[in-house]
Amino acid sequence: MKMQRIRIKDVAREAGVALSTAALALRDDSKLREETRRVVREAAARLGYVYDRSAAMMRSGRSHTIGLLVCEITNPFYAELTAGVEEALDQAGYVTMLANTAESAERQRRMLERFREQPVDGVLIMPATGTPASLSEELRAWQLPHATVVRSFRRGAHAGPDNRAGTRLATEHLLALGHRRIAFLGGAAKNSVSTGRWEGYARAMARAGLTPEHLPCRTDIGEASVVAEALTAKGPTALVCFNDSVAFGAGMGLQRGGRMPGRDVALVGFDDVREAAHWYPPLTTIRVAPHVIGQAAARVLLHRITDPAAEPLREILPPALVIRESCGAQQRRAA
Amino acid sequence: MKMQRIRIKDVAREAGVALSTAALALRDDSKLREETRRVVREAAARLGYVYDRSAAMMRSGRSHTIGLLVCEITNPFYAELTAGVEEALDQAGYVTMLANTAESAERQRRMLERFREQPVDGVLIMPATGTPASLSEELRAWQLPHATVVRSFRRGAHAGPDNRAGTRLATEHLLALGHRRIAFLGGAAKNSVSTGRWEGYARAMARAGLTPEHLPCRTDIGEASVVAEALTAKGPTALVCFNDSVAFGAGMGLQRGGRMPGRDVALVGFDDVREAAHWYPPLTTIRVAPHVIGQAAARVLLHRITDPAAEPLREILPPALVIRESCGAQQRRAA
DNA sequence: TCATCAGAGTGGAACGTTCCAATTCGACCG
DNA sequence: CGGTCGAATTGGAACGTTCCACTCTGATGA
């Protein structure tokens, strides 16, 4: 009694054309007369035909599916980025396969193997901390088109923010406000992001004839707040934070220590996550527009898939300084 | 010069068995002798065989793929939930196809059609605002196994928090602290979540012989802060907020108006997003463990797929009150 | 000695597309 | 009037699995 699925074959019979004609018509191929296409389309609608991608996938070898490996989707920055990727891929007619590696290199590896079997047309990867350097070559050996996002391999397609330029902007802003004792908070890991952000800060300090100062801590609100609470009036007057999470932690620590961000200590974040604007006091930060990075990443990967012989693209997106209240610029101007 | 893919056929030849034997061996089927399985496994490893799911999918009609429709992935609550779903599905051997509907019913519809074509074995859906009531029957007509998450249809498989119990907990806590003028902030939309949360609050108030008071506003930090800033000393002494976002907005508005949450006005949120603990002051809220809901949702859907004849499961998860500082309980205890 | 049986392995037809070569049919050209 | 051409359509072989029915082999029991 269960009604069976309608296939192209059935549509063809209903429309009175050959199977391959119907298939062509449903793909709206220009080789066919508009009239024929219409007739087939109508027959398909009448029967309630549903395209079966799994068969197409098998025959054509293309799945119109992209694997997305997110290092930590519960981090708002990466969530936003994921939304950008998904949106751009959808617009290009691709479906996103999601895997949250939760910063586990082992899980990342497992998911890559699954994606390879699936098979996906390509993968977008935000390498988990602890990713072996060999992964890049391995993917190449697999012939699996891929691009990195935010965190990068040495070579290959990539989309991410210009970290160096970001912390340079932040540091120069604080210098312009008259600060001299500016410390860099957070970013202990050895990866492309950490080194980039540190360098931008350190070079700006050096150019101003000042010595950079590193307050290391893990990228974690709790840890950052502990480090910040320990800071006294003798400490730095301004903090360039590794990212917004660290800045939030720092702000909380400072308040616990009885000092108000923006009044007693200047604070600049990095990322401009949605919460930054709604924090109290609103956080001055570096906007890198994760949504835009996500879209760029999708573009870069699709280029790689469409034109595998071409040089891999690297899109380094320029950041912008967003001045709010945590850096104290407002108060200074008012005074 | 390009090396071609290795198929089961090649593995079979290498192992000196028939194609179907090799296929059985690779699935580790107990019909085969352990010895045979080993030989085939080794041959596969030697050749670098990669399983091709797209062919399996087509022949068997099962894709081991689930479509996940998230209403707004940039919302940390849903991001966390997504992580839970993905983790549980992965453990069960399923891959997650992600679509962020961004609260657009039209986009949601389009993505459902894609998922149907893909084809996925089932969909997990957090209905976007404005989802027509007919969607539920339509999915049934499509014969597409589905379950709702957080927001629910009237019937069908579902996993989500017990909203009524949550706001009841919040309200009773505030009553116990001695508050009498307690208002409910936010939740203007007409959906299962809004009505549930309102009812839990309103009934608790009624039981205490008090009249409930609704301060409507959209679920948006900005709007909530405007409403809260307008509140004066003559207004309510405590706010039960629709969710943590609204509570954050309210906290910000209160501070702008010169009043400190937890000292001048008691504030309780709903959801316990990661930021709640790190807010200043830390937010008292209702924990619903989005990660757990996500896992439950995956379970409920897989049950539906495995056993379509059985009654759809509905998992309503009990919330917990998390007391931090924004409700003023600490101060009160200290005094 | 022969039927029966279970265990182990085999052969080949599906699954629903896409792809390519082939065919049909006028129109046009010399 | 035969030949060539392009546009429109067709036929049928792939694609790499799974699934089912079948064969083969040796052991068992009457």
From TrEMBL, chains A, B:
Pfam families in alphabetical order: LacI (PF00356), Peripla_BP_3 (PF13377)
Annotated transmembrane regions: none
One GO MF term attached to the UniProt entry: DNA-binding transcription factor activity
SUPFAM superfamilies for this protein: lambda repressor-like DNA-binding domains, Periplasmic binding protein-like I
Alphabetized Gene3D superfamilies for the sequence: 3.40.50.2300, lambda repressor-like DNA-binding domains (1.10.260.40)
Presence of the UniProt keyword Transcription regulation in the record: yes
InterPro entries linked: HTH_LacI (IPR000843), LacI/GalR-like_sensor (IPR046335), Lambda_DNA-bd_dom_sf (IPR010982), Peripla_BP_I (IPR028082)
Start and end residues of each HTH lacI-type domain: 6-60
Domain of life according to the entry: Bacteria
Keywords linked to the UniProt accession: DNA-binding, Repressor, Transcription, Transcription regulation
The protein's name: HTH lacI-type domain-containing protein
Organism: Teichococcus deserti
